[in-house]
């Protein structure tokens, strides 16, 4: 077993454990902090895959924006740390069933995937994945349409926020 | 001879290889030694910063500052550290123990981690990450997280208010900061900080993009949470904000983190806009680059202190308005203009490019000042108008007056 594999197993255990705790812990703030640890674990996976840009983007977007807004919302909720009720509602059996079916389906699809046994190709030192990603996002033969659609969506959200906050005299 | 750090590193590497260690282990060991060396060096500078801070604020306030221990009071920070270390460590009742104890570590660690990408000299750089600029932004987000955790876990309402203010401020000022950082990235065509320093060869980017430099500097002060943006601490309103309950060395770590963060951000702005280690002879003798880098960083650090001790605290609605209605639109305009001109001037000779960029920035500054002047005129007129006279609450009157 190489050093990289040991690191991978450790990080995978950390990510999964943190993810599990995020949904089982009673204190909502703790749950959000465990979620942040799980997201951070995913960022480490990107680093292990030589995808530095995705790792940093993961931290900026998920931890820097989404998780902090979630914590903010949780903190504004009253008496959130002392909630003593049940953590499940009446539909838990159905959701458990759907979760198991989806997991089994994904496992079945992935079991025939060849990617498990192939090794990652060696990256040459001159390769610049960041530049390639950048030009692929604006190249008409690659991802320019999804990229622009996402931009329009974000622009619409921005304008919507301004309209909501507009102070009509 | 001009590069002792690389020389020592090479000597140590050969020594370890000579002892029969495998190259893989030597690389790991050298990395650990490098990290430890940079961290220790930076923390030693941090101790000096306590003295610098106290001495400079004293001069701004027409005092002498520390002057009893050692020459010019230079031993004072050591006494400060000893005092902090032997203070009682208190955990408030009802505090969330683990979440309460993590933030001081996060506050200092995120700042220390920034030094991994800051180039001290052309050859003395932790790692020239190809996403260096974004890495800095990501670490800023983690620092914010530490402050929120501190504010929440302290089980104190002032701490929580401080944390809320911090979130509002950090999330807002991140926007113009990132847009302003995009300008040197665009000019250099890379996100690696050392590559950006290398790209500033004829002139520093502060000449080509002065507006972006100013926006970055202002929003960096806000990210630091220093006056006039120190709403998160605001000792006269919410006592000390998020670190109200921390005592002894835990408070010391927040304090050290804040001082070091200021120097780190100064170094970053210096690298992005003031040419970092660039100066006469820095390419041939990298050790000179370290001197130039710290001269520029400390100049900006001094400017931050100058602003901190000269301006009163900004009000929270003004703080948000200033960001969203002034800095962010200005940053967007500068980015768009820079991107267009960069393509337009692409084939032109170097001096024309620089002059054109500088003129464009001056035009932007002139337009901004004109708009602000008009705005101030309208505002003054509005304030000068006699206000409505208070009338007793009466349904019939209120319906006609509105």
Question: Which secondary structure elements does this structure contain, and how are they paired or packed?
Answer:
The complex is a heterodimer of chains A (169) and B (402).
Chain A: H1 3-24, H2 28-48, H3 52-76, H4 92-111, H5 129-138, H6 144-165
Chain B: H1 4-18, H2 23-60, H3 76-86, H4 97-114, H5 132-153, H6 157-188, H7 193-199, H8 205-208, H9 210-224, H10 235-238, H11 248-273, H12 286-310, H13 316-344, H14 350-384, H15 395-401
Helix pairs in contact in B: 1-2, 2-3, 2-11, 2-12, 3-11, 4-5, 4-11, 5-6, 6-9, 6-13, 7-11, 9-11, 9-13, 11-12, 13-14
Features of this protein?
heterodimer; A: 169 residues; mainly alpha; Four Helix Bundle (Hemerythrin (Met), subunit A); 6 helices; 71% helix; 0% strand; B: 402 residues; 15 helices; globular
The CATH class assignment of the domain at 1-86 in chain A is Mainly Alpha
Strand tally of chain B is 0
Number of helices of chain A: 6
The topology string of helices and strands of chain B comes to: HHHHHHHHHHHHHHH
Please name the CATH architecture of the domain at 1-86 in chain A: Up-down Bundle
Task: Quote the beta fraction of chain B.
Answer: under 5%
- Judged by helices, strands and strand pairing, the structural class of chain A is mainly alpha
User: How many DSSP E strands of chain A?
Assistant: 0
Interface with most residues: A-B, 21 and 24 residues
The overall average pLDDT of chain B, rounded, is 83
Main sheet specs of chain B? none
Distance between the termini of chain B: 80 Å
Residue-averaged pLDDT of chain A: 83
Figure out the total of helices of chain B: 15
CATH superfamily grouping of the domain at 1-86 in chain A: NADH-ubiquinone/plastoquinone oxidoreductase chain 6, subunit NuoJ
What share of the residues of chain A does DSSP label as strand, in percent? under 5%
Q: What's the CATH topology label of the domain at 1-86 in chain A?
A: Four Helix Bundle (Hemerythrin (Met), subunit A)
């Amino acid at each position: 077993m190489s050093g990289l594999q040991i690191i991978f197993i450790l990080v995978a255990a950390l990510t999964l454990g943190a993810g599990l705790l995020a949904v089982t812990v009673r204190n909502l703030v703790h749950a959000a902090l465990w979620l942040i640890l799980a997201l951070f674990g995913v960022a480490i996976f990107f680093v292990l895959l030589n995808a530095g840009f995705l790792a940093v983007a993961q931290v900026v977007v998920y931890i820097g924006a989404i998780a902090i807004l979630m914590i903010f919302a949780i903190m504004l909720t009253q008496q959130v740390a002392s909630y003593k009720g049940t953590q499940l509602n009446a539909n838990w059996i159905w959701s458990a069933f759907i979760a198991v079916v989806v997991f089994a389906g994904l496992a079945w699809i992935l079991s025939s995937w060849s990617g498990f046994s192939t090794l990652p190709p060696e990256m040459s030192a001159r390769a610049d994945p960041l530049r390639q990603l950048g030009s692929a996002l604006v190249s008409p033969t690659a991802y320019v349409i999804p990229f622009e659609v996402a931009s329009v969506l974000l622009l619409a959200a921005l304008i919507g926020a301004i309209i909501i906050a507009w102070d009509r005299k | 001879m001009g590069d002792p750090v690389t020389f020592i590193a090479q000597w140590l590497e050969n020594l370890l290889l000579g002892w029969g260690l495998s190259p893989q282990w030597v690389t790991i060991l050298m990395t650990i030694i490098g990290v430890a060396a940079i961290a220790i060096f930076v923390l030693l500078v941090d101790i000096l910063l306590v003295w610098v801070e106290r001495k400079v604020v004293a001069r701004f306030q027409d005092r002498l500052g520390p002057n009893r221990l050692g020459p010019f009071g230079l031993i004072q920070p050591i006494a400060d550290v000893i005092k902090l270390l032997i203070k009682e460590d208190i955990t408030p009742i009802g505090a969330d123990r683990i979440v309460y104890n993590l933030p001081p570590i996060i506050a200092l660690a995120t700042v220390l981690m920034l030094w991994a990408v800051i180039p001290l000299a052309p050859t003395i750089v932790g790692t020239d990450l190809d996403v260096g600029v974004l890495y800095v932004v990501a670490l800023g987000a983690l620092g914010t997280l530490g402050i929120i955790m501190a504010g929440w876990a302290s089980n104190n309402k002032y701490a929580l208010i401080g944390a809320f203010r911090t979130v509002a401020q950090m999330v807002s000022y991140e926007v113009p900061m990132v847009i302003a950082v995009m300008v040197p990235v665009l000019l250099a065509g890379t996100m690696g900080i050392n590559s950006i320093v290398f790209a500033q060869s004829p002139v520093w980017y502060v000449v080509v993009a002065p507006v972006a430099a100013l926006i970055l500097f202002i929003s960096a002060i806000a990210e630091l949470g220093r006056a006039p943006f120190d709403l998160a601490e605001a000792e006269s309103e919410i006592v000390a904000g998020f670190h109200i309950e921390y005592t002894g060395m835990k408070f010391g770590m927040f304090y050290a983190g804040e001082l070091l963060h200021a120097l780190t951000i100064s170094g970053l702005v210096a690298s992005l806009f003031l040419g970092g280690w660039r100066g006469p002879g820095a390419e041939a003798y990298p050790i000179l680059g370290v001197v130039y880098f710290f001269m520029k960083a400390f100049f900006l650090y001094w400017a931050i202190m100058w602003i901190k001790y000269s301006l009163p605290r900004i009000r929270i609605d003004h703080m948000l308005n200033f960001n969203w209605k002034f800095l962010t639109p200005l940053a967007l305009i500068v980015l768009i203009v820079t991107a267009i001109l960069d393509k337009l001037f692409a084939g032109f000779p170097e001096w024309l490019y620089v002059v054109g960029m500088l003129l464009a920035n001056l035009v932007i500054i002139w337009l901004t000042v004109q708009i602000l002047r008009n705005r101030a005129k309208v505002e003054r007129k509005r304030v000068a108008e006699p206000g409505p006279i208070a009338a007793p609450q009466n349904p019939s009157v209120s319906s006609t007056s509105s």
